[in-house]
Design goal:
Layout: E1 5-8, E2 11-13, E3 19-26, E4 29-36, H1 44-65, H2 75-85, H3 90-102, H4 117-129, H5 142-162, H6 187-201, H7 206-216, H8 221-225, E5 232-233, E6 238-241, E7 252-255, H9 258-267, H10 289-299, H11 308-318, H12 325-331, H13 349-364
Length: about 375
């Protein structure tokens, strides 16, 4: 029987979730294993959790038996150990991809002990001139440079410090970042324009119609692309964002808008992922930039991006006197409501989304 179901990056399962295959790399070596839970009386969720624990145990054994880091270790070797011991979350995967793009072939080859402040400054200067993708070919933004240096390189060097490989971590200095969001002067107009653009462009394409409506109704791109059909409760008109897919690390249940439900029902199949990659079966969709560009032109919203759809919705809700901070925060998947109430009120995502859905239907009808 083939292992066609992706559980995590390193775990695949058979369609009946009784057998699991593990495949991961550590210290440039590949490790593989299989387990069979056919003789267990566990339910599907338990079998998946047992498989994840099995992988963690395997990794821990390899880590404990490894003696490959020391005074002669390169940054790449330390980084591999650092990422290996981190939880296998989307954030970890993203950071590892950025490391491989910007650090692996530059500082990564140097011995950790020999990396000085001047090396970091030289790397920063190179990043300001040229990046590694078409988006930053003329230089990385201050935000990207901060992610590379402070969110990735610095933690790896701190990991080396904790393991007594270096005596101190060099000082990291990055340019200030403008965190002020772009102003949305007429959120209701932009919301309606984007809604109409989605419905017109993808009237005959339920896949992208559902995807962009999810984003317009407040979901993050990472949450949307990780959705599985098992997360969609058609019977009760609800859907679940799993804790592994959101920033607050807790399961969140939302009301399923009728327009999204209708689109989903048009292309529902027996696969696992709702938004499966059209080029690689059983893989998550990763790039919709060409579709976003179409929407940007059709809606006549120059600043439009996937995340901007959340800003448009939030700005719209903020103009409504009938929407409390609690409802707005919960509908967007936040826990932190306001400074005064965040320790006393728990957001109810399900009821909040129903309130927001009612408002959206009113202004788009």
């Amino acid at each position: 029987m083939s292992f066609t179901i992706d559980i995590t990056q390193n775990i695949k399962a058979t369609p009946d979730y009784l057998k699991f295959k593990f495949d991961f790399r550590f210290n440039n070596k590949r490790y593989r294993a299989r387990v069979d839970y056919s003789d267990k009386s566990w339910d599907k969720r338990t079998r998946i959790n047992k498989a994840k624990q099995f992988l963690l145990d395997m990794k821990e054994k390899k880590q404990n038996s490894s003696t490959n880091i020391g005074d002669k270790s390169t940054l790449n070797q330390i980084a591999e150990m650092y990422f290996f011991q981190r939880p296998n979350t989307p954030w970890t995967k993203k950071m590892k991809l950025i490391y491989n793009a910007h650090l692996k072939d530059t500082l990564g080859r140097k011995k950790m002990l020999s990396i000085k402040r001047v090396d970091i400054d030289q790397l920063k200067a190179k990043l300001q001139i040229s990046g590694k993708s078409t988006q930053n070919i003329d230089g990385c933004s201050p935000r990207t440079i901060q992610v590379i240096l402070k969110n990735i390189l610095k933690p790896v060097m701190e990991y080396a410090l904790d393991n007594d490989i270096i005596l101190k971590v060099p000082k990291f200095e990055t340019d200030p970042i403008n965190n002020k969001p772009k102003p949305i002067n007429n959120p209701e107009k932009d919301f309606v324009s984007l809604f109409n653009a989605i419905m017109e462009l993808y009237g005959d394409n339920p896949f992208y119609r559902a995807l962009f409506l999810f984003c317009l109704y407040g979901r993050r791109w990472g949450e949307v692309r990780a959705l599985k059909w098992s997360d969609i409760n058609f019977e009760n008109n609800l859907y679940t964002i799993q804790r592994e897919s959101n920033k607050v690390q807790m399961e969140q249940i939302y009301v399923l808008p009728i327009l999204i439900r209708e689109a989903l029902e048009e292309f529902k199949d027996s696969g696992d992922l709702v938004f499966e990659s059209p080029v690689k079966k059983n893989s998550i969709l990763t790039d919709v930039r060409s579709q976003v560009k179409k929407l940007r032109i059709k809606s006549d919203i120059p600043y439009l991006s996937l995340h901007a759809t959340r800003h448009i919705l939030a700005s719209l809700l903020a103009t409504r006197p009938d929407i409390s901070p609690t409802i707005m925060a919960a509908s967007l998947g936040h826990l932190d409501l306001t400074t005064a109430t965040k320790h006393y009120i728990t957001p109810h995502h399900t009821s909040a989304t129903q309130t927001v859905i009612d408002i959206i239907e009113t202004i788009t009808s």
